[in-house]
Protein backbone atom coordinates (compact mmCIF):
# COMPACT_ATOMS: atom_id res chain seq x y z
CA UNK A 1 0.00 0.00 0.00
CA UNK A 2 2.90 2.34 0.71
CA UNK A 3 4.06 1.96 -2.87
CA UNK A 4 0.66 2.95 -4.23
CA UNK A 5 0.80 6.12 -2.12
CA UNK A 6 4.32 6.88 -3.37
CA UNK A 7 3.22 6.47 -6.97
CA UNK A 8 0.08 8.55 -6.49
CA UNK A 9 2.14 11.30 -4.87
CA UNK A 10 4.31 11.33 -8.01
CA UNK A 11 1.26 11.92 -10.21
CA UNK A 12 0.54 8.38 -11.36
CA UNK A 13 -3.25 8.23 -11.48
CA UNK A 14 -3.80 4.71 -12.81
CA UNK A 15 -2.52 2.78 -9.78
CA UNK A 16 -4.08 -0.45 -8.52
CA UNK A 17 -3.00 -2.21 -5.33
CA UNK A 18 -4.12 -5.77 -4.62
CA UNK A 19 -3.39 -8.23 -1.84
CA UNK A 20 -3.79 -11.63 -3.49
CA UNK A 21 -2.50 -13.49 -6.52
CA UNK A 22 -6.03 -14.22 -7.73
CA UNK A 23 -6.97 -10.55 -7.57
CA UNK A 24 -3.72 -9.56 -9.31
CA UNK A 25 -4.56 -11.83 -12.24
CA UNK A 26 -8.11 -10.49 -12.45
CA UNK A 27 -7.04 -6.84 -12.32
CA UNK A 28 -4.18 -7.34 -14.78
CA UNK A 29 -6.55 -9.07 -17.21
CA UNK A 30 -8.83 -6.05 -17.41
CA UNK A 31 -6.51 -3.18 -16.53
CA UNK A 32 -3.41 -4.17 -18.57
CA UNK A 33 -0.78 -2.46 -16.40
CA UNK A 34 2.41 -1.26 -18.02
CA UNK A 35 4.38 -2.03 -14.87
CA UNK A 36 3.75 -4.43 -12.00
CA UNK A 37 5.54 -4.26 -8.67
CA UNK A 38 5.33 -7.72 -7.12
CA UNK A 39 6.43 -8.93 -3.70
CA UNK A 40 9.16 -11.43 -4.50
CA UNK A 41 8.84 -13.19 -1.16
CA UNK A 42 5.44 -14.82 -1.55
CA UNK A 43 5.47 -18.33 -0.05
CA UNK A 44 6.12 -21.52 -2.03
CA UNK A 45 7.46 -19.90 -5.19
CA UNK A 46 4.20 -17.95 -5.41
CA UNK A 47 5.88 -14.86 -6.79
CA UNK A 48 7.61 -16.84 -9.55
CA UNK A 49 4.37 -18.55 -10.52
CA UNK A 50 2.38 -15.30 -10.41
CA UNK A 51 4.96 -13.44 -12.51
CA UNK A 52 4.89 -16.18 -15.14
CA UNK A 53 1.06 -16.13 -15.21
CA UNK A 54 1.00 -12.34 -15.49
CA UNK A 55 3.53 -12.46 -18.31
CA UNK A 56 1.50 -15.09 -20.20
CA UNK A 57 -1.75 -13.19 -19.60
CA UNK A 58 -0.31 -9.93 -20.89
CA UNK A 59 -0.49 -11.16 -24.47
CA UNK A 60 0.33 -8.26 -26.79
CA UNK A 61 0.32 -5.72 -23.95
CA UNK A 62 3.77 -4.63 -22.78
CA UNK A 63 4.23 -5.35 -19.09
CA UNK A 64 7.26 -4.77 -16.90
CA UNK A 65 7.43 -6.87 -13.71
CA UNK A 66 9.61 -5.50 -10.93
CA UNK A 67 10.41 -7.60 -7.86
CA UNK A 68 10.06 -5.98 -4.46
CA UNK A 69 12.39 -7.79 -2.08
CA UNK A 70 14.07 -7.43 1.28
CA UNK A 71 17.08 -9.30 -0.10
CA UNK A 72 17.64 -11.79 -2.86
CA UNK A 73 20.18 -14.49 -3.35
CA UNK A 74 21.93 -14.56 -6.69
CA UNK A 75 20.75 -18.14 -7.25
CA UNK A 76 17.14 -16.96 -7.22
CA UNK A 77 17.74 -14.20 -9.76
CA UNK A 78 17.97 -16.66 -12.67
CA UNK A 79 14.64 -18.26 -11.71
CA UNK A 80 13.10 -14.81 -11.30
CA UNK A 81 14.24 -13.67 -14.74
CA UNK A 82 12.87 -16.83 -16.34
CA UNK A 83 9.52 -16.19 -14.65
CA UNK A 84 9.40 -12.68 -16.12
CA UNK A 85 10.89 -10.39 -13.49
CA UNK A 86 12.85 -7.59 -15.11
CA UNK A 87 14.49 -5.85 -12.17
CA UNK A 88 14.75 -5.97 -8.40
CA UNK A 89 13.91 -3.15 -6.01
CA UNK A 90 14.94 -3.51 -2.37
CA UNK A 91 12.46 -2.50 0.31
CA UNK A 92 12.07 -0.37 2.29
CA UNK A 93 11.65 1.71 -0.83
CA UNK A 94 13.68 4.82 -1.41
CA UNK A 95 11.93 7.39 -3.61
CA UNK A 96 15.06 8.02 -5.70
CA UNK A 97 15.39 4.30 -6.51
CA UNK A 98 11.71 4.08 -7.42
CA UNK A 99 12.06 7.11 -9.70
CA UNK A 100 15.10 5.53 -11.35
CA UNK A 101 13.19 2.28 -12.06
CA UNK A 102 10.25 4.22 -13.50
CA UNK A 103 12.53 6.17 -15.87
CA UNK A 104 14.42 3.13 -17.17
CA UNK A 105 13.27 1.49 -20.38
CA UNK A 106 12.16 -2.13 -20.12
CA UNK A 107 14.94 -4.68 -20.34
CA UNK A 108 14.98 -6.87 -23.42
CA UNK A 109 13.91 -10.46 -22.73
CA UNK A 110 16.84 -12.82 -22.25
What does this structure look like?
The chain is of the alpha/beta class and 110 residues long. The protein has one domain: Rossmann fold (3-Layer(aba) Sandwich), CATH 3.40.50. Helices cover 46% and strands 14% of the residues. The protein has five helices and three strands; from the N terminus they run ααβαβαβα. Strands 1-2-3 form a three-stranded parallel sheet, sandwiched between helices. Helix 2 packs parallel to helix 3 and helix 3 runs parallel beside helix 4. The protein starts with a helix and ends in a 7-residue tail after the last helix.
Keywords:
single chain, 110 residues, alpha/beta, Rossmann fold, three-stranded parallel sheet, 14% strand, globular
Mean pLDDT, all residues: 84
The span between the termini is 31 Å
Helical residues, percent: 40-55%
Briefly note the structural class of the backbone: alpha/beta
- Provide the CATH superfamily: Response regulator
Instruction: Report the strand count.
Output: 3
Task: Using the coordinates above, name the CATH class.
Answer: Alpha Beta
Largest sheet report:
3 strands, parallel
Order of helices and strands: HHEHEHEH
Low-confidence stretches: none
Examine the secondary-structure arrangement and name the CATH architecture: 3-Layer(aba) Sandwich
What does the radius of gyration come to?
13 Å
User: What's the structural domain tally?
Assistant: 1
Please give the count of helices.
5
> What's the CATH topology label?
Rossmann fold
**Order of strands across the biggest sheet?**
1-2-3
β-strand amount: 5-15%
Multimerization status: single chain
Tell me, what's the shape? globular
